[in-house]
Amino acid sequence: MASHLFCGRVNLNILREAARKDLREFLDKCSGSKAIVWDEYLTGPFGLIAQYSLLKEHEVEKMFTLKGGRIPSASVKNIVFFVRPRLELMDIIAENVASEDKLQPRDFHILFVPRRGLLCEQRLKEKGVLNSFTNIDEYILDLIPYDGDLLSMESESSFRECYLENDQTSLYHAAKGLMTLQALYGTIPQIFGKGECARHVANMMLRMKREFAGSQTQILPVFDTLLLLDRNVDLLTPLATQLTYEGLIDEIFGITNGYVKLPPEKFAQKKQGEGGKELPTEPKKLQLNSAEELYAEIRDKNFNAVGAALSKKAKIISAAFEERHNAKTVGEIKQFVSQLPHMQAARSSLANHTSIAELIKDITTSEDFFDSLTVEQEFMTGVDTDKVSTYIEDCIAQKDPLIKILRLVCMQSVCNNGLKQKVLDYYKKEILQTYGYKHILTLKNLEKVGLLKPQSTMRNNYPTIRKTLKLWMEDANEQNPNDISYVYSGYAPLSVRLTQVLARPGWRSIEEVLKMLPGPHFEERQQVPTGLHKKRQPGENRTTLVFFLGGVTYAEIAALRFLSNMEDSGTEYIIAATKLINGTSWIKSLMDSPEENLP
């Protein structure tokens, strides 16, 4: 099931198994039959750790979604609530418990994820139900393995909390998650970081290490380096439209906990004589990870290179099926039959990805997509960033989705180190008059986090940063890339360029640029227990864990994988983040009342 977690440089299944073990131990505390009542947000992350079969083995007979009123009837001994520590959820739990049938007493338990909340327990006490619980515990699910080189905390509002609300809870969880990693994979000798949040996380890690100095694990370090990067060091990258296959799937359809839901009509299998058969109405749900051979091969390609890759794969599969005509002896037929399941899976996978590619192509070949991309690329290269964009004006006049407008205006602001006051005022006035004055709070939020701001008297540093770090490559090779800029067809993500320079030649070569970017940059060393220093073999790559505090995009992940696979890179990257994001989900997290935002 988790075969894709074994395949990378670091066996991330060790982390998954540790999380499963803790879950089994908690379930066994509640002896007897159980029903789990889920905080809906947690079902996706938990699905990456344990399937229903594991829960069933530990006497879980029913599962319900947490909602007001009475819990649906179930003849079980225990009711277990799996919830985040949120006060509004405590009110629902209190309602559930209070409306329970007194003639059928059951044991109640709460499992807080990822930490117990004292304020939550206080709320349950105020509601008069705290004493109804036999067990109140916490389940520390900080870093969830997504793929062989990818971990996410799935903390949905970490950027908002850190930069808007000044709440550093997610940073504490990040530090705890890194301590768990070190307990399983050994001490990380070198820590580099850039940004205020990175500094906080490093400080918390070092303090926790001192507090647990006596209980250091005697494990040979797997990671050589940890790089902590604040999202606000690079505000531009998430705003840009991702142009890798996986990035576009996320931009257009949204990938949630490794799954995507797609329009069903493209996947309807019509059989002969069923011309009038009704099309399915349920979205097609597909899991996306490297366990699927074809997906692993094409997900990080620029979308313009995907068609050729699918065509090549189709020829290979077709040739493999043709081999059946050459199978003459019993042994040859037997061998062909043994390969059949794999070949059929490959054919099904090809059909799915051909359909997805067609859906994406319908959008990427549209005039609207091309015009929007052209404006993005003009902003990134410094063209007309100091005046009102006629394209943005037209989009507002046509009442295009508000998030599209906000992404473009924020991109212009970031590339220009803020907008001239009259340009900013004009955009604000147009947005509020067209989409409603309720969005004034959203504009304030975007201003507060630095995405939308008036130009200061300081000069615009972006052109210097762009030139020094080669953030724009004029002739990006999309088919056979030789640089990370292929993931945005010309723009090299600033975050990944910083990672690349750190590995070689080192940050000392870009001191001036680092000072232009927000927050401190630093280096720390951790003492590795005696006798556990890594003896590197000639030609052996270093392993670096890059942790994005505030979220990472799939295009950045693709760029880091590209660096890992470069012949002379010398470094392999494992990626961790507080959340997997795209421009839309990121801006949405900063909106107030996003559910009523779009026309």
From TrEMBL:
Keywords: Cytoplasmic vesicle, Endosome, Lysosome, Membrane, Protein transport, Transport
Membrane topology: Peripheral membrane protein
Gene Ontology BP annotations: protein transport; vesicle-mediated transport
Location relative to the cell: Cytoplasmic vesicle, Autophagosome; Cytoplasmic vesicle, Clathrin-coated vesicle; Early endosome; Late endosome membrane
InterPro entries: Sec-1-like_dom1 (IPR043154), Sec-1-like_dom3a (IPR043127), Sec1-like (IPR001619), Sec1-like_dom2 (IPR027482), Sec1-like_sf (IPR036045), VPS33_dom3b (IPR043155)
GO cellular component assignments: autophagosome; clathrin-coated vesicle; early endosome; late endosome membrane; lysosomal membrane
Function as written in the Swiss-Prot or TrEMBL entry: Plays a role in vesicle-mediated protein trafficking to lysosomal compartments including the endocytic membrane transport and autophagic pathways. Believed to act as a core component of the putative HOPS and CORVET endosomal tethering complexes which are proposed to be involved in the Rab5-to-Rab7 endosome conversion probably implicating MON1A/B, and via binding SNAREs and SNARE complexes to mediate tethering and docking events during SNARE-mediated membrane fusion.
Family note: Belongs to the STXBP/unc-18/SEC1 family.
UniProt name for this protein: Vacuolar protein sorting-associated protein 33A
